[in-house]
Amino acid sequence: MNERSNGRFKVSVLYPVLYRLEEQGYVKVARTEIVNNRARSYYRITDEGLDYLNKTKAEFCSMVEVVKELLDEDI
Q: Which neighbouring-strand residues pair with 29?
């Protein structure tokens, strides 16, 4: 996560988000295993989560288009 975000996000940011998404029913633990005496959980997106993702992406793209239009207007 740190590498893919060019240092902007750390793994510690991920867990609160995953727990919140799990509480909302958007992801669930697919399996848990123990690696080097530490629990490692693998999450899976639910159908509700996929719907939420698609809706959120559409809203984001719409917002980006509005901002682009605002920035392209002559001031």
A: 43
DSSP 7-64: TS--HHHHHHHHHHHHHTTSEEEEEEEEETTEEEEEEEE-HHHHHHHHHHHHHHHHHH
Q: How far apart are the first and last CA of the chain?
A: 39
pTM: 0.71
Paired residues of 33 in beta bridges = 40
* Cα separation, 56 vs 49, whole angstroms: 10
- Which of 48, 55, 4 lies closest to 26, judged by CA? 48
Tokens read off for 70: 């605002």
For residue range 16-45, list pLDDT tens digits in order. Answer: 999 999 999 999 999 999 989 988 899 999
